[in-house]
């Protein structure tokens, strides 16, 4: 199971937290957990997975701050329609990053953010 590359669990009525152990799936390139009722904080391990390039977490009930660090390979992130708070980390200014963050309760960094 740890050789899994794509995991799509979109719109499955999942109502739990994202386990910290998600980072053990070293070959995962795409994860879609959008349109569920996932709550809690986003585990740092999720943003530090070296193979993950696409992450969809939109339309859940996630809260707290975004992880301060992110893998340089993670370039497409949808976090829209959650309850995330705090200021955005500096990685939001990474070139070629596609970040969807509608309805954030956060402050944008001092650099302009073009989405």
TrEMBL record:
<dbReference type="Pfam" id="PF00560">
    <property type="entry name" value="LRR_1"/>
</dbReference>
<keyword id="KW-0472">Membrane</keyword>
<keyword id="KW-0325">Glycoprotein</keyword>
<dbReference type="InterPro" id="IPR025875">
    <property type="entry name" value="Leu-rich_rpt_4"/>
</dbReference>
<dbReference type="InterPro" id="IPR032675">
    <property type="entry name" value="LRR_dom_sf"/>
</dbReference>
<dbReference type="Pfam" id="PF12799">
    <property type="entry name" value="LRR_4"/>
</dbReference>
<keyword id="KW-0732">Signal</keyword>
<dbReference type="InterPro" id="IPR053038">
    <property type="entry name" value="RLP_Defense"/>
</dbReference>
<dbReference type="InterPro" id="IPR001611">
    <property type="entry name" value="Leu-rich_rpt"/>
</dbReference>
<keyword id="KW-0677">Repeat</keyword>
<dbReference type="GO" id="GO:0016020">
    <property type="term" value="C:membrane"/>
</dbReference>
<keyword id="KW-0433">Leucine-rich repeat</keyword>
<protein>
    <submittedName>
        <fullName>Uncharacterized protein</fullName>
    </submittedName>
</protein>
